[in-house]
Design a protein that fits this description.
mainly alpha, about 0% strand
Length: about 150
């Protein structure tokens, strides 16, 4: 049987290290905390495997990245078609999903900093709410208050 491909496996970690070699580093500790916390709070309920964010909440997540059009397109697909859970999308953003679209380094760096701040806001909300609807509402409100 094939090894599960994630950063939790040796192969996944090696690929992540290779992918980021020479690029802006990503905050592994923040990534791990967002993913570990999110897995507990956003766990499947009655078999659902997608987020339950409203279209306005999804838009609030995407809007701060408007300066990075290719990433906006990716986020729109991730959240509106694949419907990744919020923690999963934030984890991917923190782990440098902001890179690889041919954007200048300063654009990638700005997007990476926003992703990290969003991860911190998510964790702030998880300390207050363990119910998804309230968590999404808290996260959205904090994101909308930020001066990106």
């Amino acid at each position: 049987m094939a090894e599960k491909f994630s950063t939790e496996t040796e192969l996944g970690h090696e690929v992540a290290v290779w992918a980021h070699k020479g690029k802006v580093d990503w905050d592994v500790n923040l990534w791990k905390e967002v993913v570990d916390t999110g897995r507990k709070i956003e766990r499947p309920i009655m078999g659902d495997t997608v987020h339950t964010m409203s279209p306005l909440q999804v838009d609030a997540l995407i809007r701060p990245f408007e300066f990075h059009p290719p990433l906006v397109g990716q986020l729109q697909w991730d959240m509106n078609v694949a419907k990744y859970r919020l923690y999963d999308e934030l984890g991917m953003l923190i782990m440098s999903r902001t890179k690889g679209y041919g954007q200048p380094p300063e654009i990638e760096l700005k997007a990476q900093k926003i992703a990290e701040k969003m991860g911190q806001l998510y964790l702030q909300c998880t300390k207050q709410y363990t119910e998804r609807t309230k968590l999404y509402q808290c996260f959205t409100e904090l994101v909308e208050k930020e001066k990106w």
